[in-house]
Amino acid sequence: MTKGRFGRRRKTEGKSDLREGEHIAVGKQKIMRGAGFIGCLVIITAVCWMSSFARADERVKVIVSICPQKYFLKKIGGDLVDVSAMVLPGGSPHTYEPKPQQMVALTKAKLYFAVGLPFEDVWLKKFADANPRMVIIHTDAGIAKLSMDETQHHDLENEGHSEGKDPHIWLSPALVMLQARQILVGLLDADPDHAQVYMTNYKAFITELVDLDLKIKDIFSRKTRGAAFMVFHPSWGYFAKAYDLRQIPVEVEGREPSPKDLANIVRDAKEMRVKVIFVQPQISAKSASVIAKEVGCRVMTADPLAEDWSQNLLQAAEDFAGAL
Ligand code: ZN
After folding, report:
1. Phi (first) and psi of residue 62, to 5 degrees
2. Cα of 297 from ligand 1 centre, angstroms
3. Higher-scoring residue by pLDDT: 13, 60
4. 304 CA distance to ligand 1 middle (Å)
5. How far, in Å, is the centroid of ligand 1 from the Cα of 11?
6. DSSP of 214-257, one letter per residue?
7. What is the pLDDT of residue 272?
8. How confident is the model at residue 34 (pLDDT cuts 50, 70, 90)?
9. What share of the chain in percent tops pLDDT 90?
10. Residue range 159-183: mean pLDDT, rounded
11. Backbone torsions φ then ψ of 133, nearest 5 degrees
């Protein structure tokens, strides 16, 4: 009896197990149907994703030297270009060396827009060897560069320094107009199918540059004419020239100044009643704070390499004007 009971009970348990099993089976079917649906979604998503990749591949792959050029390329090339910069944010073009993965990325590029930085003298040839089909465009073509002596107004006694030209041509809206022209020509040659788009974008960018130039001219009034501002690294020579200012750099030939130089700089800064010494985030500027302490002025940042180029230039103009 007990056995039978147990047996029945077991049977009942068995039945209920079966029912559980049925439930599971039904559940599985539901899940399978669900999975089928999700599967479809996954496939659709994958197809969309792949086709978006196909579109990405259609974009003109462009490499530039520095981030401000990225801004210029995006303005003129819009969505038609895929642009990356060799000098990454935070890096200094003056100490730049490409990373191995950048050399690999370079092999897929169609265009390289050079800007005339010293590192290009060394590396452009190697870039060309790595990707012989890549067209290299010199956006500094037709720009009369100033010698470093013309943009550095230091009266240092150990003269005879840097015969080199000032490469910082991307910090003057007027000079960027000339670079924009080279960028346009490069894109038209590489991708003539979209000539209309590039032309329209180019014209809009030139208008932006004219507006920016006028805004900056407004910031520097007549009373700032000829006024000097002090910077650690001489990035702002063309900017200074465009807006009737004088740039006084702390650096001597790209190096921290010697103690003797430092004494001269402190004397100059005191004479000029310098209120601010501008440094840039990419270059460590220990002596800037030493001088600032001696002179009793502040240290502020003005970034010559920001990707948000237009807004950044306007901000720098306001900061410089505030320091005069
Ligand atoms: Zn520089």
Report:
1. -125, 140
2. 23
3. 60
4. 8
5. 87
6. HHHHHHS-GGGTT-EEEESS---HHHHHHTT-EEEES-BTTBPP
7. 87
8. low
9. 65
10. 86
11. -80, -15
101 CA distance to ligand 1 centroid (A)? 24
- The pLDDT value given to residue 324: 87
Q: Can you state the angle between helices 67-77 and 309-323, rounded to 10 degrees? A: 130
The rounded Å distance from CA 203 to ligand 1 centre is 29
Secondary structure E strands in the chain: 60-64, 81-85, 111-114, 135-138, 228-231, 246-249, 276-279, 298-301
* DSSP letter string, 45-93: HHHHHHHHHHHHHHSEEEEESSHHHHHHHHHHHGGGEEEEESS-TT--G
Once rounded to an integer, what is the mean pLDDT over residues 205-232?
A: 93
pLDDT-wise least confident of 53-57, 158-162, 239-243, 316-320: 158-162
Q: What is the mean pLDDT of residues 145-158?
A: 61
Taking alpha carbons only, the member of 135, 117, 138 closest to residue 127 is: 135
CA of 105 relative to ligand 1 center, distance in Å: 25
Distance CA 32, CA 34 (A): 5
Cα 78 to averaged position of ligand 1 atoms, centre (Å): 27
> Separation of 264 CA from ligand 1 center, angstroms?
22
Mean pLDDT along residues 100-114: 96
Distance from residue 166's CA to the centre of ligand 1 (Å): 8
CA of 245 to the centre of ligand 1 (A): 18
Beta bridge partners of 111: 62, 135
| Residue 222 structure tokens | 């007549």
How much is the mean pLDDT over the chain? 85
If you measure from the C-alpha of residue 37 to the centroid of ligand 1, how many angstroms do you get, rounded to a whole number? 57
